[in-house]
Structure formats: C-alpha cells, structure tokens
Design goal:
With 549 residues, the chain is of the alpha/beta class. The chain is built from 18 helices and 13 strands. Helix 14 runs antiparallel to helix 15, helix 15 packs antiparallel against helix 16 and helix 15 packs parallel to helix 18.
C-alpha cells in the first residue's frame, strides 16, 4: 500500500522577523554587491536601492514593486540596467513617498523613465509619484508592462518577467546616451512585442502566512501570477515536455513567426536540473525554431518559493540583440546568449569498448530479462526505502540500469557466459550511475575472469563478490547489499529457495544495524537507520525470492 503524507499548511523560512525581512534582505544584497549598490536613508518605510556610481548625467531608469520576486528588482540595479529599485513589502506595492524619493534621488536633466508592472497598486503609486515629481520640474515618463497572455481577453493584463526585457534593452540604450523620448518609445515597443506565461506545480508560501494548497498532487496550474494568484486552469502534470507544450500553445497564439529572444525564468522553487530540462524542451518545441537568443534559465522574477517557471518571449527588432547582449554590471542578470547547435565530440579511443561478438541464447535472454523486470517493478519501493537512509534513488538507479540492459540484449554474447559476465559489467559501467554502477561492474568483470579459468557459476560469482568487497571496502555487517548477497551466494549450493531465504534473512538483519560503514547511509544517524532495511540488500533479496518462486 502506498504511503500518504499530509501536505503541510505552514512552511518554515530562514527569516528573523516578518517586519524586518525586506530591509534585512536589502542590506544583505547591498553588502554582497562589491560596492556597486547603496540605498536611500529612509528605513523602514522608504526602501530604495540605488546605483552607487550614478551621476545623473543620463536617463534614469526606476522600477520596483512588492518584494518576494528576488532578484527582481534590486538585483537588476547597476550599470547597463536600472538606476534604482523601489521595494515594497512582500507582494505589496511601495508607497508614493518611496517612489518619489527614488525619482528625486536619481533624476537629472536627462529625465527619468518609470518601468511599472500592470498591477493596480503599482500603477497608482508610481503614477502619483510621477505627477508629484513633474510638479517639481523633473522630466518623468511612465511605461506599463502587461506581457501576461494567460487571459487574452482581460483588459488589464498583468506584468510578468517580460519586464526584464525592458530593463535590459532600455538600460543599454540609456547607458549608450539615448534621450528620454527614445528610451520611452523603445520601452513601449518592447512591451508590445513581449508575451509571458507561467506554470507551477505548487503555490508559493508567504512568510508568516498559512500556505494555500489549492493545486492537488499530480496537477499543475497554468497562467498563475507572480503573487500566487490562481491561474487560468489546472491541468494534469505530465512532465517537462508536456508543460512546455501547454505554455507554448498560449504563447504561439499571438506570436509572429519571426526571430525572438526567450527568457526562461525560475519562479523560485524549481531545481536547476528541472530548469535545464525545460530549456531543452522549449528549444525542441514548435516555436524553438524562432528562438535566436536565450536569457537563463535562471531565477530572475520569482514568486518566493513557487515550484514553477515562466517563459517570456520578445520579438527582436534591429539592434535588440546588441542591447540584450551588452554588458550589465548587475547581480541578477544571467546574460543573453545565442542559441547554438552543439558540436558533439567523439569519445577518446580508450573509452571505445572492445565487445565480444553478440550471440543468441533464448533461455539466458529470458532469465536476464526476468531479473531486470523484477528490479524495474521494485523501483518505487526501493526509492522509498532509500529515502529513509540515503538519497532516495536506489530504485531508479537499478531500474535504469535494468532498462538499459534489456535494450542491450541483442548485442550481448548470451551464448558465452564467460563473455556475458564481462559484457554485463561493461554495460553497467556505462549506464548505471553512482558507486553502485562501478561496484557491480567490478563484480561482473571479476566473475567473468573467474569463469574463464573454469570456475562454476556460483564460484565465479563468489570471486566477483570478493573483488567487489576488496575494492569497495564493504563487509558483512556494514549495512550494504553485501549483507544479503554474500549469504545468498553461500547458500546457492543448496538451491535457489535456500539462497532466497538467506538473502531475506541478511536483508532483514540490516534493519537492526544502526550504523553503516559504507555508502550514503554512513552519513545518517542511528535513529534514522534503525528499523529500515538497506535498499541494496532489499533489492538482492527480492531478486533471489523472485528467482526461487
């Protein structure tokens, strides 16, 4: 029966206090900026991060909004992008006074451009601050970013990560000396050419608030906002390629079939591995052929810890590639790079294996396939066991190697068991990750050597185990697969049922061991190990029990 764990409604965070978290985050960002950033003296109500080198000789770019989207917006302050960022409370617009303070602090004769995401609070507070700044005699323009395409019929589309295209292109223009009118026209052009949509497997958790668990397990939400607002639809979660296809469907509906730049944004909780897979899926999708430049994948405009991503596209106009790839001395911009088809290098000669000729033998093929299917069927159970004492991947590692071995069956020397041991070792060394793959490759290679000298199958396998123990350092009682494999091979002379019983006894013995001397479990404390069978030993026991049955 599958184990069911309740979903948590509260989440712990590394904060000191809810009241001080924004100011402390700003101070940490400034302290780690290498002297490129500073701030206005207005805590706690005015939280404005400013370029430390700003001399008011060029058009100032000011953006901001609620906190919780880090590195946006303070992470994009610096030469080549923003002049200042105004930070509100988490998911709350900054005040009019805070925005006005930023404008007055950075605006010179060249004027100031406010880059505002299309949310009511931001529009009102930035807009009123602009009016007050104009009353002081400053030249101030305002642009509203509304790149969200999740709800195409919505009269007020939200501003999402496409805002960063404006920051970067117009930031490079300002750095090059463009005037306020040129910067404003370019900003509106980029906004009109941009479209974004996000998808997430879970909602975000706001510090100090209960977590809303509205997305059921196995589902994803399409088109949700960067403040955790509900999306346009909940859909079945079916992997990275399917997620990208759903996002691409919305993006391509209004997308011209012309060269684009894509910004691949981590909403805060996706791993780097997932983001790289999503990037690969995007470039392989129907719109991949139109993507010339890529920004990311990286966390740029997050929704705290939301386990999701967003894709932003912007149609490229003449000169945009230069602005996008121009240097930007900021903390949060990951760079913009051209999409390249990789050139794959051949393996060095020393890694090209010398294989024994393939040979057919139906009984051996059926036997090996049956063993592999047993391990594949145990994948989830072994992963669950390994999660209690390791990194939760033993089942996947063994199942992956088993699938690869099944696929390799036609090129194995099935009729020559001596060569077969060696061939299996070679396959495992290439397809099975981690230390388990190396150790089992050693086991089968040594068994092949022993078999070539005339040893019986049992003796050859014992020789393989001896070699594996010598090199790997695992012995009985060390809480590894050896605790099940050694007694099983010793009992094999009495038949498979005896070997299976010995393997099961050895596996269950590992549950009583509260310290491991090899493998990932050696780093786990006694309380976590006690009562849990070692997953490698469990795999051996299941394999022998299946063969005995």
């Amino acid at each position: 029966m599958a184990l069911v764990y309740p979903r948590r409604s509260t989440v712990n965070h590394f904060i000191n206090s809810k009241q001080d978290m924004v100011t402390e985050a700003i101070d940490g960002t400034i302290a780690a900026s290498g002297g490129t950033l500073t701030r206005l003296d207005g805590y706690p109500h005015i939280r404005v991060v400013v370029r430390a080198d700003w001399d008011k000789s060029k058009v100032a770019l000011v953006s901001g909004g609620g906190s919780g989207h880090e590195p946006a917006h303070a992470g994009f302050v610096g030469e080549g992008m923003l002049t200042a960022a105004v930070c509100g409370d988490v998911f709350a617009s900054p005040s009019v006074d805070a925005v006005l303070a930023a404008i007055l602090a950075v605006t010179g004769p060249a004027g100031c451009l406010l880059i505002v995401k299309n949310y009511t609070g931001d529009r009102l507070n930035f807009g009123l601050a602009a009016e007050r700044a104009r009353a002081f005699g400053h030249k101030v323009s305002v642009v509203i970013v509304d790149d969200d395409v999740a709800l195409p019929d919505l009269p007020q589309a939200r501003g999402l990560a496409g805002t960063l295209f404006v920051h970067k292109i117009v930031g490079a223009m300002s750095q090059a000396g463009a005037n306020l009118d040129a910067c404003t026209i370019a900003a509106n052009r980029v906004i009109n050419a941009s479209r974004s949509i996000g998808l997430s497997l879970d909602t975000c958790s706001v510090p100090g608030s209960l977590k809303e668990d509205r997305i059921p397990p196995g589902m994803a939400e399409l088109g949700l906002g960067i403040h955790g607002e509900a999306g346009v639809a909940q859909i079945a979660s079916a992997g990275a390629a399917d997620a990208i296809s759903k996002v691409v469907e919305s993006l391509s509906a209004t997308m011209p079939k012309t060269p684009h730049v894509a910004l691949i944004n981590n909403l805060g909780g996706a791993s780097c591995l997932e983001m790289a897979i999503l990037t690969n899926s995007l470039l392989a999708s129907d719109i991949g052929q139109y993507i010339r430049l890529v920004v990311g994948p990286s966390a740029m405009m997050t929704a705290l810890d939301m386990h999701g991503f967003s894709i932003s596209l912007c149609e490229l106009s003449d000169g945009d590639d230069g602005f996008l790839q121009a240097p930007a001395k900021v903390l949060g911009w990951p760079g913009c790079r051209a999409v390249q088809t990789p050139s794959v290098l051949p393996l060095p000669d020393g890694l090209t294996p010398i294989r024994a000729p393939a040979s057919a033998h139906a009984p051996t093929q059926d036997f090996l396939t049956d063993c592999c299917k047993t391990l594949i069927a145990s994948e989830d159970d072994l992963n669950l066991l390994d999660a209690k004492s390791g990194d939760g991947d033993t089942g996947s590692t063994l199942a992956g190697a088993s699938r690869a071995l099944i696929e390799a069956m036609d090129r194995l020397p099935l009729a020559d068991h001596t060569q077969l041991y060696r061939a299996i070792g070679l396959e495992l060394s290439q397809t099975m990750g981690g230390s388990s793959g190396v150790l089992l490759a050693i086991f089968f290679a040594a068994a092949g050597d022993a078999s070539s000298s005339g040893m019986s199958m049992r003796d050859a396998l014992m020789a393989g185990l001896d070699r594996m123990r010598q090199i790997g350092g695992a012995n009985p009682g060390d809480r590894t697969m050896v605790d099940a494999l050694l007694p099983a091979l010793e009992a094999l002379a009495d038949g498979l049922p005896a070997a299976a019983a010995a393997a099961r006894k050895g596996a269950e013995y590992t549950a009583s061991l509260t310290s491991a001397k090899a493998g990932r479990a050696s780093y786990i404390n006694a309380e976590q190990l006690e009562g849990h069978i070692d997953p490698g030993a469990e795999a051996v026991a299941r394999l022998f029990e299946h063969l005995a049955s």
